[in-house]
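Reply to dn_fold:

You asked what the input looked like. This is it:
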Amino acid sequence: MGQGYRAAARSLSRRSLLATTGLLGLAAAGAAVSAGVNAAPDGNSLRAAGGGPRSVLGIEPIVRTERVFSPARKREVDVVTILPPGVPTQGLPMSLLLHGLHGTAHTAAIGGIGGLLAAAAAARLVPAFGFMAIDGGDNYWHKHFSGDDPMTMLLDEAPAWLAARGLNAEPFACTGTSMGGFGALVYGRRRAERGRPVNAIAALSPGLITSWSEMRKRNAFADADEWAALDPLQNIAKLGPSPTGVWVGDRDRFIDGCREFMGRARLEVSRVTPGAHNDEYWSTVTPDVVRFLGSHVR
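and this is what came back:
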């Protein structure tokens, strides 16, 4: 367990502890609703998680899917908004929600996070906020040598899409899983470079690969130098001041890179718990992720 998490744990307020306990209780109560969906196999877990935002205690999030054109990606993309029910949406704080490799906007809501948010907001365990997920392709959320540029889409196009729907135009946070966790850390860096750091970054099982020989198999970077310039693990000092949480299972395929990152980065939450790289594991940590994000809504 990293020093950042130990320090954060010592200063965790009683209110935050109660919120986490309450969220865990909601998740446990909702387990019967989603039991048949959670146990996704490791290999295709991100696609298997595409059951979408699940209800908790019968409280379902409001989910809308729209098709828009992204000039940065040079194609139409799906935009999925996940909102808690029964709250005013005008100016609602929003977190981007980034999917993993071979995923889409429809598979980004891992671990029942949408339903958990809806129930937590209804119970007033966290302030109301929402998620926006967008199709980002398979290129680790950066400008690919093919011309596909999902990071510019997030930085320059998503704010207008949020504003057009009456939501807060500037995401207060970025949340991502696997490749999306890598992307969330890069997004936080880019926002800081623009002088507008986000309030929080949540990275679940981030795809922090420790060798170019392994990363090059994904055809996401032109060469080792481009990867080295962007990789969060090799650019920790450039990631910016945003409070950051990292959650990873002890049997995750990216555990080595995550442990190294946790040992070197200044993190508000740094948690290794039993589990693999699948939805079954993610459903055990999304209560803490929702609590963490909720604590940084401003």
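The radius of gyration is 17 Å.
Hope that clears it up.
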